[in-house]
Design brief:
Blueprint (H helix, E strand, L loop, with lengths): L4 H20 L5 E6 L5 H9 L16 E5 L2 E5 L10 H13 L2 E7 L7 H13 L7 E6 L6 H18 L6 E4 L2 H10 L2 H6 L2 H70 L1
Parallel strand pairs: 1-3, 1-4, 4-5, 5-6
Antiparallel strand pairs: 2-3
Pfam families: MMR_HSR1
GO molecular function: GTP binding
InterPro entries: GTP-bd, P-loop_NTPase
């Protein structure tokens, strides 16, 4: 089987870039908020911050990875997926997820129903490229205030089924929230809205990430070093295979030339 050096080289570069980020980052965890355009990423970040730090609009505002620090966490707002026909924003978002972030909040709004094929494809790419993905990601379901309790439970069950059967995640933590309900609770000083928003579960997850970031990075660093070593071995094998193929071609060509030359000599003689 011929190995594709270009594909291996790309994976190698992703791993090397991520390792570089781990080694030279400070101790603040880096969390990327990742998902389709207009699924509530910016509103979610505003709820976490407690004020409007990120614009929410019906047109694309985030066209590149935007980082901002809050409460000892470096937050990365990635471009909305599937909004740029040229795919440049998706590439930037994936870079933010693969290389920059220690942890990912994958955002999906429940008003859209179940996960679509595009989301599943993207999530599968994350699972393939991210070491120990189940420990680095959670799926945040937004806008739960737009559904009844029964409707929400149906959607959550369907999404869990999709994750289990149609993706390479197999399992992932799911946190349903309403960022708008939480922000309304803050603005109107109504704790019941904040309580029913589900945000407290997300805040608990953030605290766990902050407490475990050093341990998590050390584990990922070890895995990346092994992954890079494996990639280098594969590339060396591929190069040797290519050299052997070229060598065999040269031997075959030399044999063909010798054969034709002998035929010519015989004919002339």
């Amino acid at each position: 089987m011929k190995l594709d050096i270009s594909i291996m080289s790309e994976k190698f570069q992703h791993s090397l870039s991520r390792l570089d980020k781990i080694i030279y980052s400070d101790q603040k965890p880096r969390i990327a908020v990742f998902g389709k355009y207009n699924h509530g990423k910016s509103t979610l970040l505003n709820a976490i911050f407690g004020y409007e730090a990120f614009k929410s609009a019906d047109k694309r505002e985030t066209v590149e990875n935007l980082s901002i620090e809050h409460d000892d966490v470096m937050w990365i707002d990635t471009p909305g997926l599937d909004a740029d026909v040229h795919g440049k924003d998706d590439a930037a978002a994936l870079t933010g997820a693969f290389e920059m972030a220690d942890y990912l909040f994958l955002v999906h709004q429940v008003t859209a129903g179940e996960l679509d094929k595009y989301e599943l494809d993207i999530f599968n790419r994350l699972a393939v490229n991210t070491t120990d993905y189940s420990q680095k990601m959670c799926l945040v379901l937004t806008q739960i205030d737009q559904k009844t309790g029964d409707e929400l439970n149906t959607i959550i069950d369907k999404v869990q089924q999709q994750v289990s059967l149609e993706s390479q995640f197999k399992e992932v933590k799911i946190i349903p929230i309403s960022a708008t309900r939480y922000l309304r609770g803050l603005e109107e000083n109504k704790p019941i809205f904040c309580e029913k928003s589900g945000i407290s579960t997300l805040f608990d997850e953030i605290e766990k990430i902050k407490n475990n970031v050093i341990k998590t990075r050390e584990k990922e660093k070890f895995e990346l070093i092994n992954k890079i070593a494996h990639s280098l071995n594969e590339m060396e094998l591929a190069i040797n295979q290519e050299m052997n193929i070229n060598k065999n071609k040269q031997v075959s060509l030399k044999s063909d030339i010798t054969c034709e030359l002998n035929k010519l000599i015989t004919k002339v003689a």
